[in-house]
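hiii so um. not sure if this is the right channel but i have a protein structure encoded as tokens and i wanna go backwards to a sequence. like what aa goes where. can anyone help
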């Protein structure tokens, strides 16, 4: 059965709901549900999502959403569909670029605006071997745990850990996370999400409200996401099987560990090569597989 609402985990779906000028009140509501009282957003403007580096040798990041409040705080919002190697490193780089771009060439006064990075992750990942948590906030603190710099914050939201039902939604953040996680499977607006901003978000997310061109673009990104998920699952299974077979000669425990690591790397490369052969953009392949863009460029395609 066709879903009534679009999938917000697709590039098109996420930007349609949160990235349109006409819908900036939706993004403001989501940000304010996450941010501390001192940095609540009254209004914002969208900025260019392609950050131009100061040197052609540097990689130019392309962000999902990049915006600025009236008081100058900057917000990077990234939707990460699948686990990616060096995702946290990439997040730090994106945040550093936003800090760097505030300083004009030759300027000597560093009155920087606060920068917030929000990563919405459709996977779980432990940080420094600590158990994964739903919302992991990262900031600059000293050895005693005291905040020493209030202008740099990162939030990593691990969506698989959100498991609340309608009756358990107690906070605005609960409501937004429920919206994000359950939207494609809903056929109505839950009563608990009857506030005007959610009503608008649901209306924006209706497939029937899209033009023919928008619907075609949404189907393209949705099909790309679904294909990537299937190919990654198959490749991982094949990689694990291959690794287990190789590992048996050295002992099952040692072989499984080594084989799984090698098999998963080979599986990611094979998947990236197949997606490249299908003509998908390098950025999309990077998001789907975690393979760096420069390595994807070097991959050869079998004729």
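sure thing!! here u go:
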């Amino acid at each position: 059965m066709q879903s009534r609402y679009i999938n917000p985990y697709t590039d098109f779906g996420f930007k349609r709901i949160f990235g349109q000028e006409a819908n900036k009140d939706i993004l403001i509501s989501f940000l304010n549900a996450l941010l501390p009282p001192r940095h609540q957003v009254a209004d914002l403007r969208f900025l260019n999502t392609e950050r131009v580096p100061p040197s052609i040798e540097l990689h130019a990041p392309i962000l999902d959403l990049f915006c600025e409040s009236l008081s100058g705080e900057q917000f990077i919002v990234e939707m990460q569909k699948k686990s990616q190697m060096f995702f946290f490193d990439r997040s730090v780089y994106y945040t550093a670029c936003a800090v760097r771009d505030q300083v004009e060439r030759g300027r000597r006064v560093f009155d920087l605006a606060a920068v917030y990075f929000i990563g919405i992750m459709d996977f779980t990942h432990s940080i420094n071997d600590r158990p994964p948590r739903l919302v992991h906030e990262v900031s600059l603190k000293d050895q005693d745990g005291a905040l020493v710099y209030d202008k740099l914050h990162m939030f990593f939201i691990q969506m698989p850990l959100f498991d609340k039902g309608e009756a358990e939604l107690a906070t605005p953040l609960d409501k937004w996370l429920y919206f994000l996680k359950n939207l494609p499977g809903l056929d109505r607006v839950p009563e608990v999400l009857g506030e005007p901003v959610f009503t608008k978000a649901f209306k924006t997310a209706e497939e029937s409200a899209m033009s023919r061109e928008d619907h075609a673009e949404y189907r393209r990104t949705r099909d790309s996401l679904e294909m990537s998920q299937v190919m990654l699952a198959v490749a991982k299974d094949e990689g694990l099987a291959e690794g287990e077979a190789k590992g048996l000669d050295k002992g099952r425990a040692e072989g499984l560990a080594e084989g799984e690591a090698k098999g998963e790397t080979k599986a990611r490369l094979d998947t990236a090569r197949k997606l490249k052969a299908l003509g998908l953009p390098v950025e999309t392949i990077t998001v789907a597989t975690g393979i760096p863009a420069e390595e994807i460029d070097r991959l050869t395609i079998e004729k």
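oh and Confidence is low (pLDDT under 50) at residues 53-59.
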